[in-house]
Amino acid sequence: MVATQETKIYRRDVDKLNIQEREKLIKPYLPTKPLKVTNRPKHQPIRMFLKTQLHFIVFTAMHMVFSIYIRFRQAFYIVLDRIFAVLYYHHRAPELIRQDIRGLERLPQHLSVILEIKQEEHGLVGLGKLLDEVAEISAWCTGAGIPLLSVYERTGILKDHIERTHRVASSKLRSYFGRHVPTLQIQAPHIPSFLDGNESNRASSSAGHLSIILLSEEDGRATLVDLTKTLTEMSQRNKLSADDISVELIDAEISESVMAEPDLLILFGPYVKLQGYPPWQVRLTEIYHSQDNCGVGYQVFLRALYKFAKAQMKFGR
């Protein structure tokens, strides 16, 4: 109410002033000199044209050099794959696979791969190709003497077809090993494992054994979040002390619920894209990928084993 009355008094006093008195009242607050307006230099059309053309020429030259480099690199890896295909090929014979890796000082005991269904291959066609890739890699691992294989596929479609995956992989192993087929076990986190039903194969120790773990995106960060919530609730209910929560405890829980850390992770794509792969399991894992490669191949598998055998593991103190 007071502010309204003061406003009315101010308006009444101002209305009594004429134009000269109002200008005299405002004049002390005006700047003494008018601001200088700087004139912007006019752009010269010829200079701007030459500058634009120079940028375009440099940009085009950079693209040409990079394109030539990419073409030469692709040709190099294509020739390298052909050489490996001639010198090293399994011919579906485990003896040749063991011969190819004979000179390696060490092999991974747990091998992991990342596979994916291409967008243009959804449906039964894409699933059939994915199952065939899993079966081929299973046969290579068994021939090389690798006992554990984990297969990551982001969508989790393999988990919905565990029995079919086991059937296709077993058929592939029979084509490689004949009558002495190794035992095969397929499992997935929070899903009962599927083991060979043939007791004669299970009792055969000379043929070997292969365990396959199927993983998906939900086994990665979501598992870490659930474990964090569980540990937090147990700590709030005084069932677990905060001092008892350690890296060893988390590692043991994740290894039991999902899987242990693999020794070698193979990417069959041209880029290093983990696609939501469980992050805890790749802390000390050797990751291998082949540039300009876009498919599952025995040559990539073999080069990854050679790379792993020569790698230096420095874990620190």
Radius of gyration: 35 Å
Which spans of ≥5 residues are poorly predicted at pLDDT below 50? 198-205
Major sheet: arrangement of strands: 4-3-5-2-1-6-7
From the spread of the alpha carbons, the general shape counts as elongated
Question: What fraction of the residues are assigned to beta strands by DSSP?
Answer: 5-15%
Summed over residues and divided by their number, the pLDDT gives a mean of 84
Oligomer: single chain
Biggest sheet details: 7 strands, mixed
> What distance separates the N and C termini?
76 Å
- Give the strand tally: 7
Note down, in words, how this protein is organized.
By secondary structure, the chain is α/β, with parallel strands linked by helices. The chain contains ten helices and seven strands. It has helices at residues 2-15, 19-26, 45-87, 94-100, 124-144, 162-177, 199-203, 221-236, 247-257, 298-310, and strands at 110-115, 148-153, 183-188, 191-195, 209-215, 264-267, 286-289. Strand 1, helix 5 (124-144) and strand 2 (148-153) form a beta-alpha-beta unit. Helix 4 (94-100) packs across helix 5 (124-144) and helix 5 (124-144) packs across helix 6 (162-177). The longest helix has 43 residues, at 45-87. It is elongated, with a radius of gyration of 35 Å. The model is unreliable at 198-205 (pLDDT under 50).
